[in-house]
Amino acid sequence: MSSLSNPEIQDKVQDQPQDQTTDLQSQETSEATAELGDSLEDGIVFPPGDLYSDEPPMETEFHLRQMILLLQCLEAWWRGRQDFYACGNMTIYYSPRQLKSEHFRGPDFFVVLGTDRKPRKSWVVWEEGGQYPNLIIEILSDSTANTDRGLKKQIYQNVFRTPEYFWFDPSTQEFKGFQLLAGVYQDLQPDSRGWLWSQQLELYLGVYESKLRFFTPDGELILNPEEAALQELQRAEQEKQRAEQEKQRAEQAEQQAARLAAKLRELGIDPSQV
């Protein structure tokens, strides 16, 4: 794109005599050609850096990792259960006319109870016995926060009738939860730790190290598989160190007993008679 398309430059050019305008155009053309030539010599052509994209904004890495973390932790905690379905960033189709071209939403994380734990490409309400999620969590971002707090909340309340709805903003650490009572979402009240209790999951939700996490009724952090493996490795290392310390203490006691026996013999005393 020629810099002559810039309004500021156009204004300057219009104020200049024609010969100066021609010189300016020639100079800019030469500079652009030289710059392009350098790029071509390197085998690389760079597009302008100010191109506008009308594609929808993608989730951030944190957004993605947060969804995966929630899913991993819950599936690990419920690894022995087959009566639930949990997923993230999946489309839920809920058209009364059973059309996938209308009425659909994609929660960041949701859980359906009382269903088969099996892989799915999407959640189609009319193919799932009319079941909607029991719990939904949205991860707020600059581009979705207004929708998550407004339109989606109304849909989850009035259409889905989802018993519990939570949202978490990783940038501001804002964390809120709602419970459906008499058809209307009511604020869940946090405990002294800032955690919210989920009756649907029978678990706490709370912020830990800037991430939204699940906690047991006893307040224990629910680990994902990687964290659990690391914890087990640390436990094994601690047990190894404890065993080594016990071995060293036993060897020291044995050496001390041997020295005492030798001393008794020097005194003419039979150690076995002591």
Structure, explained:
With 274 residues, the protein is of the alpha+beta class. It has six helices and twelve strands. The chain has helices at residues 7-14, 18-41, 61-77, 145-149, 151-160, 225-266; strands at residues 84-87, 92-93, 104-105, 109-113, 123-124, 135-139, 164-169, 174-181, 184-187, 196-198, 203-208, 211-215. The strands form three sheets. It has a six-stranded mixed beta sheet with strand order 1-4-6-7-8-9. Strands 3-2-5 form a three-stranded mixed beta sheet, with no helix packed on it. The protein has a three-stranded antiparallel beta sheet with strand order 10-11-12. The chain is elongated, with a radius of gyration of 33 Å.
Summary, kept brief:
The protein has 274 residues and is α+β, with helices and mostly antiparallel strands. It has helices at 7-14, 18-41, 61-77, 145-149, 151-160, 225-266; strands spanning 84-87, 92-93, 104-105, 109-113, 123-124, 135-139, 164-169, 174-181, 184-187, 196-198, 203-208, 211-215. It has a 6-stranded mixed β-sheet with strand order 1-4-6-7-8-9.
Helix fraction by DSSP (H/I, runs of at least 4): 25-40%
Give a count of the beta strands, DSSP E runs of length 2 or more.
12
The CATH fourth-level homologous superfamily of the largest domain: tt1808, chain A
Biggest sheet strand order reads: 1-4-6-7-8-9
CATH class of the largest domain: Alpha Beta
Major β-sheet, in short?
Answer: 6 strands, mixed
The CATH topology assignment of the largest domain is tt1808, chain A
Oligomer: single chain
Could you tell me the radius of gyration in angstroms? 33 Å
